[in-house]
Specification:
The complex is a heterodimer of chains A (about 325) and B (about 375). With about 325 residues, chain A is mainly alpha-helical. Chain A has one domain (about 1-140, about 150-310): ABC transporter involved in vitamin B12 uptake, BtuC, CATH 1.10.3470. Chain A is built from 13 helices and no strands. Chain A has helices at about 1-30, 40-60, 60-65, 65-95, 100-120, 150-155, 160-180, 180-190, 195-200, 205-230, 240-250, 255-275, 290-310. The radius of gyration of chain A is 20 Å and the shape is globular. Chain B has 16 helices and no strands. Chain B has one domain (about 55-320): ABC transporter involved in vitamin B12 uptake, BtuC (Orthogonal Bundle). By secondary structure, chain B is an all-alpha fold. The chains are: A mainly alpha (about 325), B mainly alpha (about 375).
Amino acid sequence: MNILANIISLTIVFAVPLMLVALGGMYSEHSGVINLALEGIMVIGALCACFTLQAFDRNGMGKVHPQLCMLIAIIVAAVTGTLFSLLLAFAAINLKADQTIGGTALNTFAPAFAVVVTWAVQGQGLTTIQIPSWIRITQESFGLEQGKGFWDMLIFKYFYLTTPIAIVLFFAAWILMYKTKFGLRLRACGEHPQAADSVGINVYRMRYAGVLISGCLGGIGGIAYTIAVGSGFSSSVGGYGFLALAVMIFGNWKPVQILGSAVFFALFKVIAAYNSSIPFLPKFEGMKDQSSLYQMLPYIVTMIVLIFTSKHSQAPKAEGIPYDKGSR
Amino acid sequence: MKVKKPLAENQMFISVLASVISIIAGLLFGSVLLFILNPSKAGIGMGAMLTTGFSSLDQFGKVLYQSAPLMLCGLSVGFAFKTGMFNIGATGQYTIGAFCALYGAIALQLPWWVCLLLSLIGGAVWGIFPGLFKALFNVNEVITSIMFNWIGMYLVNLLLANMPVMLASAWGASNSDRTAALAQANPGAVIPKGGLDKLFGNSSWINISVFVAIIVAIICWFILEKTTFGYELKACGYNKEASRYAGISANRNIVFSMIIAGALSGLGGGLYYLAGTIQYVLEKKTLAMGFNGIPVALLANSNPIGTIFSSLFISYIQVGGSAMQPNFSSESTDIIIAVIIYLAAFALLMKGVITGLLKKSMKNKDDKEAKA
């Protein structure tokens, strides 16, 4: 039973960054901007949050108020992610640049910047920022006793502040997208910006909002990923930004389905990492490196799904096309 | 008599000027960043980046060697651009190409030129997917390419792990995380040096790959500029609907252009790993070489001949970047490359500004002449 608890809790902790970043991508694409830079935004968010955590660890505040410090680190990640996404927003919206190329530029920039800065701050060769251990929420945080039962494993083995925050942000996303004026206007800008403009919606402003929200969520996703991996931050988020794009497409650009596909993708990641210790998986006799097989599967499944859904794709119609007031 | 076109209307000149401006902006940004991080070492660092490539024949040999795969990845991205496709999947095609070349070299014991053909075919096969998915199902090629980058990388890892003969451990070395060194496994698969090593002071890097790449670049230029097929490809890139109206099958051209783009990247992988100096290491991240084809193509404005020069430049600062250690990380060059890509994203705007400025200055000149 403990292994089941382990798998479930690991799946949750890996689904959190995937869902957050995919939701971020969803905001951006519904506003009409393809955010290919999510990977880079995650890296920048994680970098700044990790430096924040490290600083709290050094001055001793971290051990006294662990969750407060964690919250500050998450806010730092959100803010830096938002600031970084401004670069994409400016290029894509004001300068009407090619969005995929702009995103590629940010993706090239972020990991390089992270390595160079980490190198400069920590000294040569030290490219991994260690994460302090006090950030985990334990039974003690609630005044409970430390146990080794099923529920203890399930809830507390990998319990971080990012998980409840992700849950809140998920409900916020659903309400914002479908129950508010803002959501309706945002989606209008991604479907038919000219029509939106004609009824008085400021398309540029809505697109800025979409990209900046995606930057905010991407930044939080970055620190959530780093925590989930647990071995410190070494200037990379392992392609999770791109995987989140797949999650978003697989989730049909809708919050609830994105949650489902995030869990699905995370489960495959967990199986890939722990396939040898999971008893009920098929064992391919004589095959080495089965983790690669399981890592590959979500991408293949996404492609197959794309083939079948492309005719009725829910993708925003105007995504990727710069909005030009003058064009018809 | 041929009338000389005014500078402001010379597209080639404006493109080159825009690229030079991007490069200068990238270098400036990089210098400022290094200065902020470590003022005392910034000068040494930038100096290392900008001079190492010419500092010795050995290093210059390395510049030429690395420029070959970069050139092919750049050609690949550029070729797809011409048909209106963004081939962000060059790294996947490159990985598959590298695998096919190494498979031919180590497992099948084939000579180098057959291995290069295999890499070409492998890359082409990987390029079919984004093209077909776009043509048949209208799936965005960027998404397909990204998915197939990861599928390709994991597939190659999976295949290599299950082919013990491919790994270095089967050929007298102790490590099983990389492919066998070609010097032991099959010296006949190493791309010949063609006497260039003597010219370059026994540089271990140099071989004929850069010339192969230049020949391929010229072929690409020929296809795009001098054949009907190339004209149709470009027509699709300019305006898909109009070309369809003119009787050009857009879908067919999309698939063909992606196959060619894939083949180019694949050949790049073959050229890089058949040099005998590098072994393929099983990693959990996609290879950077394919992504670096993007700035190469952007700097060259997708022009195959321009790609020769832009790949030499990117290779030059990359070789310089590794000499910046231990003061700075070699990734500093990637920051400069990122700025170049970012500026290229709004190249049209920049070109508009340059044209405007040139026209203005010329008008001023004309006015002055008129007054005089």
